[in-house]
Amino acid sequence: MCALHIEEEAHLAAMGNGLVQLRPPHGEVNLFDISWEDVLIPYVASHLSLKDLFNLRCCSTTGQRFMEDALAKRQELVLSGNNSKNIAQCFKVVARCCQRLEQLHLARCKWLTDRLLLPLLKNNKERLSSVNLNECVNITALSLQPIIVECKQLRVLKLSKCHWLTTGAVDALTLHQSKLVEFDISNCGAIGERCLNIFFRKLNKLTILSLANTPSVTDQVVIQIGFHCRELEHLNLIGCTAVSDFGVHALSVQCTSLQSLLVQRCHRITERSLAPLRQRVWIDRPRPQQDAHNMINFHDFYPSDFLVY
After folding, report:
1. Which of 98, 177, 226, 304 is 20 to 30 A from 8 (CA-CA)?
2. Rounded to an integer, what distance in angstroms lies between the CA atom of residue 181 and that of residue 171?
3. Which residues, in sequence order, are CB contacts of 138 under 8 Å at separation 6+?
4. Helix axes 193-202, 219-228, angle to 10 degrees
5. pTM of the prediction?
6. Residues 151, 178: contact at Cβ < 8 Å?
7. What is the pLDDT of residues 209-254, one digit of tens each?
8. Per-residue pLDDT tens for 22-57?
């Protein structure tokens, strides 16, 4: 029995190293005899959900090792809205095994804490380019620190309804990040106007920006966005009641690539500034007395995953 166990271990090691062995020691061929590195992981495991991988993990020792090897090479993790029972325990396995993540989607994960998230960030900080933490209410700015300081490939950061996001965290972002193309800080009330002005002076590669219901967004902030973020294509200002025609006019003059502008519940913004934009920009507020049947389709211009996450 001991000898058989040793032979099985040697066979598993060979499979993990990508070596093809036509028949295992017991003389039977099974799925795991196909090369893991060359076939199973890139062409099979990449199409399996996390639930599938965890079910496979429960089948056998070989299944467990295959699942962990597959996670180690996985480039995207999607758990947004998943608040199922025992998900936190499963996440510990994922955080330990994943080492090549480029995209991390954890929006609305109410169970997520700093203690669970930090190990995952530590193992994947060099490759992460997209992080979505929208409505993750039980983490703190502590989890944001490695993202800000060590994720040098970061391009997309979503922090909507993260009330723990502070002015200090935005200042740190300004200092360490300069390549963001998409940024969402909707409903973040603890951020000051001054830090946003400084932030947009440096983050000038933004193409998608959401500032909905952020009280500190004023005309001065919008002017800074217009002057520095010349490549901006989509801007969400819904509920930014401090913004007026003055800021939108400055935006329209500078941001010639703008494709869509959301200004619902911005009562100080009128047709005086919106009318000149309508020829080239989709605006969520229709013209006065405009026939609804003549409105341009929202999805023709606005990225569908921007407001729905």
Report:
1. 98
2. 17
3. 110, 111, 112, 113
4. 10
5. 0.82
6. no
7. 999 999 999 999 999 999 999 999 999 999 999 999 999 999 999 9
8. 455 555 777 788 888 888 887 888 888 888 888 888
